[in-house]
Prior knowledge:
Distance between the termini of chain A: 51 Å
Strand content of chain B: 15-25%
CATH class of the domain at 4-118 and 214-232 in chain B: Alpha Beta
Shape of chain B: globular
Order of helices and strands of chain B: EHEHEHEHHHEEEHEHEHHHHEE
Largest sheet of chain A: 5 strands, mixed, barrel
Strand content of chain A: 25-35%
Largest sheet of chain B: 9 strands, mixed
CATH topology of the domain at 4-118 and 214-232 in chain B: Peroxisomal Thiolase, Chain A, domain 1
Oligomer: heterodimer
Number of strands of chain B: 11
Order of helices and strands of chain A: HEEEEEEEE
Amino acid sequence: xxxxxxxxxxxxxxxxxxxxxxxxxxxxxxxxxxxxxxxxxxxxxxxxxxxxxxxxxxxxxxxxxxxxxxxxxxxxxxxxxxxxxxxxxxxxxxxxxxxxxxxxxxxxxxxxxxxxxxxxxxxxxxxxxxxxxxxxxxxxxxxxx
Amino acid sequence: xxxxxxxxxxxxxxxxxxxxxxxxxxxxxxxxxxxxxxxxxxxxxxxxxxxxxxxxxxxxxxxxxxxxxxxxxxxxxxxxxxxxxxxxxxxxxxxxxxxxxxxxxxxxxxxxxxxxxxxxxxxxxxxxxxxxxxxxxxxxxxxxxxxxxxxxxxxxxxxxxxxxxxxxxxxxxxxxxxxxxxxxxxxxxxxxxxxxxxxxxxxxxxxxxxxxxxxxxxxxxxxxxxxxxxxxxxxxxxxxxxxxxxxxxxxxxxxxxxxxxxxxxxxxxxxxxxxxxxxxxxxxxxxxxxxxxxxxxxxxxxxxxxxxxxxxxxxxxxxxxxxxxxxxxxxxxxxxxxxxxxxxxxxxxxxxxxxxxxxxxxxxxxxxxxxxxxxxxxxxxxxxxxxx
Lengths: 145, 388
C-alpha cells in the first residue's frame, strides 16, 4: 500500500516561481525559507558542505547531514539578465540569474528585483536572503552587501 | 583494442519543421550514409540511436527505427547525452567494433524538435537544467551560456564584437551549405543596429545573433572494423582518439566560468589516445550552439592559449584558408541544432573534409580532423579525433 495522499510531505512544491519537484528528503529547506533562512547541508561524518542541500554525501557515502545557514557575504561570480523566459515565468521578465561564491560552496539563484543590471559587477559582495514571491511561492535572492 | 573506421556518413537537410514522421526523418540520414558506404541494411550488425528524449512522442525510438531501416533482427539501443548524443553514439559504436563484438555499426542521430507544440517546447526549455534547484528560478540555455560569456569577457577582455565576428564567420560558410537552416549573410553592423533582429537581447550579454536555432534533422555514421573497412571502402577515415567527460549539472558546482572543464578533459584524453596535439589538427568542427561556445572551444581545445581565442577570430585564423579552419560548414549557428543529430553532422563534415570531398568548403589537404560536441551547458563533452 502506498501512503495516503495527505501523508505525503510535498513541502518542496512551494520552492520557486514554478516548482518541478514536490518530494525530497531535504524538504526542511522550504520550512527554513518560510522562517526567513537559507540553508545548506553539511556531512556529519566528513564535514563537506553542500549547497544546494543534499540528503547524502557523495564523498563518504554517509547520509547523516546537518543544516547550516547561508550567511555573510559571497562574491558575485557571473550573472545574466533574461529578456525571455520559459513557460510560467513570463510575468517575471526581465530577471537576472547569478552565481555567488561563498568559498566553501557556491549558490545559484536570482538577483533581487529592483537591482538594475548596471549596478552589478563581477566580484562584488552579495548576500543571500529568503524571499516570498508574488504568487505565494518561496525562493531566495541575492542583494548587494 | 582493434582499430575502427568510419566508412559512411549522411545527414538530412536541417529544417525548421520536417514534414514527415521521425522514422522517415531518420531514413534520410541513414540512406545517404548507406549509399556512401555502399552497404545494404542486412550488412549492419547493430545500431545505436541517439536523441534527446524530451522531444520524442515515440517511446523507445530505436526499436521503431530498426524496423523501418531494415535493421532487424540486429540489436539496437538508444543513447542520450543531450546535444552530444550522437558523438556519444560514435564512442559506443567504436567500443562495440574495437572490442570485436560487432563488425559494422550504424550510429543514427535524430531530433524532430517540431514534434511537440511551441508551448510544450517552452515548458521543456524550463526543465533543461537541474529541475530541483535551478529551473524554479526560470532558467534557459542561452542564459547559462551567457553567464559563461560574462565570465570570459570579464577574465580576458573578450568583446561583444569578437562574439559577433564568430557569427559572421559562421554565416560566411552557412550560405554555401544547402543542408543548413540559416543561409543568409550576417554582418557585424547588424549587431549594432537596434532595428535588426540580430541585435535583440536574449540573455545578457548574448543577443539573437549569438544563438543557434532549433531544427529538425537526422544524421548517420557507419563504423566498421579495420578488416571490414579495408574490404569495402576506398577511403576509410580512422577513429584515432576519443575523449569524454561530465561536470556538475548545477552551476553552483562549477569552478570555472570562462571555459568548459568537460571539453578540456575530453580534449586531453583524445589527443593522448591519438598521439597528436592541437597543432596537428588540420580542420575542426566545434559545438557553436552560441558564439561564446566556439570562443571557449578555441581555448579548451588548445588552438589558442587561454584568453587568446579572440585573437584567432580577429586574425581570421579559423576561416577556410586560416591556420586552423573551424566550422567551415557554417556550424550550428547556420545549420541549426537538431539536438540528437548534431554530433553526427559534425562528424560527417570532418569525414568529407578528410576524404577531400567537401566541395566549396574543402580545406587544403587535411589529414587529421577534430570534432568537439558538448551536451547541455558543459554537462557532457565529447572530443573525437579522426584521420586518414
